[in-house]
Amino acid sequence: MDGLSWSWIALEVAGPPLVALGAAFPFWRKDQMIFGNIVGTAVIFATAIGLIFREYAEIDRLTNACLDAGTVCWPQPSAFMRFAVYASIGLIEVLALFYVSIRVEDRNRRRGYSPEWR
After folding, report:
1. Which helix (H) or strand (E) holds 60?
2. Per the domain annotation, does 118 fall within a domain?
3. Which residues contact 44 (CB under 8 A, 6 or more apart)?
4. Residue 28 lies in a domain
5. How would you class 40 by CB atoms within 10 Å of its CB: exposed for 0-12, middle for 13-18, buried for 19 or more?
6. Which of 11, 32, 51, 73 could disulfide-link to 27, CB 3.0 to 4.6 Å?
7. CB 34 within 8 A of CB 114
């Protein structure tokens, strides 16, 4: 029960931002920035919550196995820290998505002006 699930953390870092950008970009191209942000945020947060639930189930399974064996064991790091890792990564990814959204919106807005007026 010691240690973090680094493979699942790597999945959280690599997968959802790409899927979120792919889902949000069609909306951004049509100047629907808010809808794109909502869709991208939903993808990222749903993945983070799903991985938190997976981690909860794993901790519960391991704790029950320890109790069935007649011992008491505590996860290290604590369940809260494990959940906080996934939640923090998800929040940072959403902030990055919003930053990219602002850059795309600025580029789309500037495209409507002639180069002399930019």
Report:
1. helix 33-68
2. no
3. 16, 17, 20, 90, 93, 94, 97
4. yes
5. buried
6. 32
7. no
